[in-house]
Amino acid sequence: MATHTLDTLGLKCPQPILKVAATAKELQPGDKLEVIADCHSFPEDIEAWCSRTGKTLIVCAEESDGKYKAQIQF
Amino acid sequence: MNVAISTGGKIVMSKKVAIVCNGVETKNLYPTFILASSAVASGDEVVLFFTPGAAPVLRKGELEKITAKGMPDMKELVEGVQSLGGRILLCELALEAKDMKKEELRDGVEVVGATSFMSDIHDAQITFSF
């Protein structure tokens, strides 16, 4: 039930999602992943990824000046 | 073959995606690797097929040289595709047509004939050609 953090600031579509997918391989069911991103399409992309892979997107919110923070339940 | 992944009680069906790449320009390579990496990251089975026109870029170190303004890092896209199980196939006709040797190819590239590629992707639900 660990919480992991992934910083994808500066990475362009689809690299943040690639990083999420690579990190996902290391996580266990019950773990939480927090992702920081500033890619414009990130909110829609992470929603689509969670839907495709059966993960729960707890929240994805804009923090400040184009930076997003998403929490994903594994 | 499609795979049913069970995640927290939810069943998710993956798709099979086949992308043909026909050239060595950024307009051929970026769509190929951006869509391939997005698909493979979402759990799809991805097969890329490089025709002779695109073959030279599969020499070791060539894809790493590809850059374009505003575009993501090509090296990371390629590594992402391969590390998540995406396959890169090269048309066997390219070896003679482009004076290439198998030893020159980047790691993980499979040299195949058209028939085995078509057999491989006969159940693909999503196909692209760039």
DSSP E strands of chain A, number: 4
Q: Tell me, rounded to a whole number, the average pLDDT of chain B.
A: 93
First-residue to last-residue Cα separation of chain B: 24 Å
Tally the helices of chain A: 2
| Radius of gyration of chain A, in angstroms, nearest whole number | 11 Å
Q: Determine the strand fraction of chain A and express it as a percent band.
A: 35-45%
**Largest protein interface?**
A-B, 19 and 23 residues
**pLDDT below 50 for ≥5 consecutive residues: which ranges of chain A?**
none
* Series of H and E elements of chain A: EHEHEE
Class of secondary structure makeup of chain A: alpha+beta
| Topology pattern of chain B, helix = H, strand = E | EEEHEHEHEHE
Structural class of chain B: alpha/beta
The number of distinct β-strands of chain B equals 7
Strand order of the largest sheet of chain A: 1-2-4-3
What distance separates the N and C termini of chain A? 9 Å
Side by side, the strands of the main sheet of chain B go 6-5-4-3-7
The stretches of 5 or more residues of chain B where confidence is low (pLDDT under 50) are: none
Give a quick account of the main beta sheet of chain B: strands, pairing sense, barrel closure. Answer: 5 strands, parallel
Helical amount of chain A: 25-40%
Give the CA-based shape of chain A: globular
Key structural traits:
heterodimer, A: 74 residues, alpha+beta, 4-stranded mixed beta sheet, 2 helices, 4 strands, 36% strand, globular, B: 130 residues, alpha/beta, 5-stranded parallel beta sheet, two-stranded antiparallel sheet, 4 helices, 29% helix
Structure description:
The complex is a heterodimer of chains A (74) and B (130). The relative contact order of chain A is 0.26. Chain A has a four-stranded mixed beta sheet, with helices on one face. Chain A is α+β, with helices and mostly antiparallel strands and 74 residues long. Chain A is built from two helices and four strands. In chain A, a hairpin with a 2-residue loop joins strand 3 and strand 4. Chain A starts with a strand and ends with a strand. Chain A is 30% helix and 36% strand. Chain B has 130 residues and is of the alpha/beta class. In chain B, the strands form two sheets. A five-stranded parallel beta sheet of chain B has the order 6-5-4-3-7. Chain B has a two-stranded antiparallel ribbon with strand order 1-2. In chain B, helix 1 packs across helix 2. The two termini of chain B are 24 Å apart.
